[in-house]
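Hi U.,

Before I forget, here's the chain from the pilot set. I'm dumping it here mostly so it's searchable later in email.
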Amino acid sequence: MSRFPLILGRLLKATALTSVVGGASLLSYSYAHDKLENDSAIKDKLPAIIKELPPLPSREALIKRLGPTISEKFGTTKKENEFSASDAQIKYDLIIIGGGATGTGCAVDATTRGLNVLLLEKNDFASGTSSKSTKMAHGGVRYLEKAFWELSKAQLDLVIEALNERSSMLENAPHLSSVLPIMIPVYKWWEVPYMYVGCKLYDFFAGSQNLKSSYILSPSSAIAAAPMLKADNLVSALVYHDGSFNDSRMNVALALTAIKDGATVLNYMEVKQLLKTDDNKVKGVRVVDSETGNEYLVGADAVINATGPKSDTILDMDHDVKGVAPALPLNTPRMVVPSGGVHVMLPDYYCPKDLGLLDPSTSDGRVMFFLPWQGRVLAGTTDTPLKKVPDSPIPSEEEIRDILKELQPYIKFEVKREDVLSAWCGIRPLVKDPRKVPKDGTTQDLVRNHLIHQTDSGLITISGGKWTTYREMAQETIDTVIEKFPELKTNNSKKIALKPCQTKRYKLYGAEFFDRTLAARLAQEYQVPSELAEHLAAYYGDKAGLVLELYKKDEANQLPVGLASDNVKPSYNNFQYPFTVAELKYSIANEYTRHPIDFLARRTRLAMLDAKVGLEAVDGVVKVMGEELNWDNDHKEKVKKETEEFIKYMGIYENTSCFIEDQKH
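Structure:
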């Protein structure tokens, strides 16, 4: 038989194969060429790194908006507390007292609708409860369980409200928040279906805004995910998802957003008096600048009391015909029932780096979280009823050890007190319903929902709720203001028709041009370590480039803040955390940082992440701030002592109670 047909067949196959390969090569070349062009186009579509930006108004410029001081206008012709609403020199549409989450949330909501807003904070933004939370944007698994067992619509409404708001937080500040899976270890077989149904209901009530579906793990998978977890008697684990966020940075972002949009927002401005009309209506405030002692009289159509745990202090002022605070708290029904919540910070080996742990039922019936946060582990919280609101709450040793005791059953190795890096106490402003006051005085059964209350004088108070629902609380509060003061709809200072609420999908300061590639692009652009780039992107969002411009400007700006002082000997501790002199200078110039505590505890979280390292950094922070703000030696020594005193009570010493005045060190 001739071999020609066989050879011809092989030749045709080879030709066809060559054609295919050649065509594929041509297509591959064409694709690669197009891809290079597309990569360039993609690069062009990425938001540019912001390297310069017109600054926000300075503190001095904002204060000028308050008009002349009392001494400039009245001299000594009027005594303190003799002022009334008619004496106000400048008028706003709305004054908000309180610069926490609720107050700054109200400022953003009102300003974006078109109102002319003044916000006054006695201390620093987030200096109270708003910087001492569990750092979770969540619906509250405990409230969901209570809702079903107690058939409580109020509890269920709170869960649904918070789940709806959780997605807004994640969308409006993506650089400050993220999705966090949380594992519930299960040690009894009958609890598996119970926990599973609970997690699925949590997903269900989130609806279309559910973050990720919950799922079940085998014991081996649970131990693989969390090697520090005790395996004894572990039968399963459930994983559900919630949000994690940086609370004080979120608070600062709200304040900066309001200022960017035109509001006058000031920290370290204490309201001393509510200015009233002859018919006892609150129409302004007398406020003192804590730094200079200068006092101002400012009028407004409406005044909001958003002071959280201190709500009753402002309400006591409202009870006075002259609007001044009584020498002692009045014996009137209290709007707020205070509860102390302690958290501790532990080293990262107590929890997986990307998975939280939840103890659904502690020995006293609470829920306890152990969460990865900022490279450490956040554990808490306690729930301690208080008879009064302390000015400077601190964690008691009993509460710290209680948290460690609850953690020990889950951890293979010994949970040690000396592992506590820091601890703090926050005061929750729980709304009191006089018809349902717990007989035993506990606060666990009080709903953390909010209450909006207007007094006969027109003062509007918003209290209660929690961080996750701040935006909806603000929306309802401003809705109430507009309803109670309808003249603001058209006869406001700008003479415009007000917009409806804008904040449901409204990017906060730092979020507008933020994207998930920012950290990588910062590392490339400025040739800095990835850890530093990731930190700055997570803290400042699209403004991170402004910090790095300062960083590259001077080698001294690249030092850790703890090494800025001439008196500190370098050690490994100085390089554990990414907080640099550049970041400190940026916060002074752009974020209204006025005290070392502002930077160490709120603009950064160094004191909360590691109180001892924070204490070591005090000298360096004081030195830089003194140079930037022209402090004399007396003031530097004063703020140094205040900062050291503040940090020393963050778990470094064994505190006997939650009140500083009870301590003896």
